[in-house]
């Protein structure tokens, strides 16, 4: 029964039920693992491009027609030589760049913006590393038939249906004008088709942006689910970042031993050890040649105080009981610091008593 209980506890401790810690999130981000919807950059690019066409579409059309007129009227009269071909190629390329540059620039800005609004600036090389598991057919099949693949399929079907509905709706509202295109001039027809195309593009872009926001919410949920941690994971992370508690306790114990040994080594040089008598012990030293005021060379409470008193007894250092002074020195003065002015009188009385016993008026041993 106890074995089964332990197995159950171990099983539940491995379940991914806890939210990811900041350290886990940081590690995932360094690997390029963030909540991201690929739909948002695409929707923003489409929206930006069609908005651009709304405002500068006439300029771009005029540039294209100008390039076309030059190609049909000017170039046929040129002699076919390497120089003329090179010039024709350069001129057409320059005109094409002028026409396409605004579109490319807007697409670039919107693409970067679409990623930045999701996870900020991120440069990670881990996704570019060659990993054999990426070409593992078993894992590939698992990805194809996973829940995520089904969700992506349903998303694609939904997008197709909604885009078709929006496009058909706009065409249906303009059906009478579409049917009359045959009675219009080529210029009027092209203008109408261009305007209708931009309208459909804007409507579809807004729809895709709405769907992209919903997709980002789902991607955020899926990401949070995937980076969940078990209670054991959190314990292991704490051990990794803060150190094993057992090792930390041993380090602290060793530090206490070193500190105690260092203080005990100062006892033979002290003039007196002031005690509480059981809870506190403070060692004082004064040398009128090198010190402006008496200095605390060691102090401790309880077990440390006991060790200091034992060391004082071993080295024949006078131990003097003074509860108020011992408590005040312990709480107000750190090791290596001089006694504060408000305690001068009490400390002076203690040192005077010690010096009288030792038979000399100055400080020091």
Based on the model shown, name its key terms.
single chain; 365 residues; mainly alpha; name from scop; 2 domains; four-stranded mixed sheet; 13 helices; 67% helix; 6% strand; elongated
Number of domains: 2
Helix content: 55-70%
- Total helices: the number is 13
With strands numbered from the N-terminus, the spatial order across the biggest sheet is 3-2-1-4
Shape: elongated
| Strand composition percent | 5-15%
Q: Kindly, what is the distance between the CA atoms of the first and last residues, rounded to a whole number of angstroms?
A: 70 Å
Give your account of this protein's structure.
It holds the Pfam family Bac_export_2. It is found in: Cell membrane. It is a multi-pass membrane protein. InterPro entries: FlhB (IPR006136), T3SS_substrate_exporter (IPR006135), T3SS_substrate_exporter_C (IPR029025). It comes from Exobacillus caeni. This protein is mainly α and 365 residues long. The protein folds into two domains: 21-119 and 132-237, no CATH class; 252-358, secretion proteins EscU (name from scop), CATH 3.40.1690. It is 67% helix and 6% strand. The protein contains 13 helices and four strands. It has helices spanning 2-13, 22-30, 39-73, 82-119, 137-144, 147-173, 175-179, 186-226, 231-242, 245-266, 303-314, 323-332, 344-358, and strands at 272-275, 280-285, 295-301, 318-321. It has a four-stranded mixed beta sheet with strand order 3-2-1-4, sandwiched between helices. β1 (272-275) and β2 (280-285) form a beta hairpin. α6 (147-173) packs antiparallel against α8 (186-226). The longest helix has 41 residues, at 186-226. It is elongated, with a radius of gyration of 42 Å. Residues 5-12 have low confidence and may be disordered.
């Amino acid at each position: 029964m106890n074995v089964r209980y332990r197995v159950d506890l171990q099983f539940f401790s491995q379940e991914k039920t806890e939210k990811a810690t900041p350290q886990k999130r940081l590690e995932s981000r360094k690997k390029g693992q963030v909540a991201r919807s690929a739909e948002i950059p695409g929707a923003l690019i489409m929206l930006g491009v069609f908005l651009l066409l709304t405002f500068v579409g006439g300029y771009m059309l005029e540039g294209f027609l100008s390039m076309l007129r030059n190609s049909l009227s000017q170039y046929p009269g040129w002699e076919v030589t390497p120089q003329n071909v090179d010039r024709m190629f350069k001129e057409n390329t320059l005109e094409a760049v002028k026409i396409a540059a605004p579109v490319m620039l807007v697409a670039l800005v919107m693409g970067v913006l679409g990623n930045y609004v999701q996870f900020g600036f991120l440069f990670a090389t881990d996704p570019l590393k060659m990993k054999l598991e990426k070409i593992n057919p078993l894992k590939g099949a698992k990805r194809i038939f996973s829940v995520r693949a089904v969700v992506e399929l349903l998303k694609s079907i939904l997008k197709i249906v909604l885009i078709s509905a929006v496009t058909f709706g706009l065409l249906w509202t303009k059906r009478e004008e579409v049917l009359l295109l045959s009675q219009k001039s080529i210029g009027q027809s092209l203008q109408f088709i261009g305007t209708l195309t931009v309208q459909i593009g804007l409507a579809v872009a807004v729809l895709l942006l709405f769907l992209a926001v919903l997709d980002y919410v789902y991607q955020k949920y899926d990401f949070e689910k995937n980076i969940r941690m078990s209670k054991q994971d959190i314990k292991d992370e704490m051990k990794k970042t803060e150190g094993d508690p057992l090792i930390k306790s041993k380090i602290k114990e060793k530090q206490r031993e070193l500190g105690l040994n260092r203080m005990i080594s100062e006892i033979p040089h002290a003039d007196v050890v002031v005690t509480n008598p059981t809870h506190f012990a403070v060692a004082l030293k004064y040398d009128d040649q090198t010190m402006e005021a008496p200095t605390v060379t060691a102090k401790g409470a309880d077990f440390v105080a006991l060790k200091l008193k034992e060391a004082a007894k071993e080295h024949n250092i006078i131990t003097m009981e003074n509860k108020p002074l011992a408590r005040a020195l312990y709480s107000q003065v750190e090791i290596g610091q001089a006694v504060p002015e408000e305690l001068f009188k009490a400390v002076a009385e203690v040192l005077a008593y010690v010096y009288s016993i030792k038979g000399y008026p100055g400080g020091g041993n």
